[in-house]
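Lab notes, practical 5.
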Amino acid sequence: LHLAAQGVLTAHYLPAASAASRSIGVRWVEGTAVRALADLPEARDDSFALAVASVGGRAVIAWDEARETGSAIAVAVVSWGAEGGAAPRPRIVSPAGSSAEQPVLALRPGGVWVLWIASRPEDADAEAAAGLRREGPAETRRASWVEGQALDEAGQPVGPVRALTSRRGHVAHIAAAPAAEKGAVFVVRDETEAREGAGGSLVRVHLG
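Output from the prediction step:
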């Protein structure tokens, strides 16, 4: 949910209509009144990640879903006037070539940041050169990092997708919020140095 000046913008998953798809219900709550803004179709996967923000009188929703081809996951964003009406077609913001999960939104002047955790299998030769040991015979170690893109109030990009942490990291979690000084700040848990599930580090990054 997102607290706005006149109410609360919420998004939640609705009961699945089929084994292959489900919907995201977007609602505007003002006092005790609940108004349905849209039910957004989503390609069903194992994730329930959702992010919602209200900016400039518009609703912005981000989620991750299975791509139409292959096994990778992508991050989709949709933005439309919070007064209601038909929502436009969602736009995939994460680039091909890696999976993208756990989207978060953070307000920025004139729009929002959409951030997500990107991942892909690590190269076995690079692992050996770095002295890394595979965790098991059936496991493929994956590198994971934070990517993001600045969007305007209409949900359109105002800059390229950027890698915001090292592509050789192992980011497991991400949280974001507006920064007191300006822009946005996000914190990630990186498990590159973790051993047997313990350890790791917290990394704070400021976005102007």
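Observations recorded by the TA: The radius of gyration is 18 Å. The longest strand covers residues 33-43.
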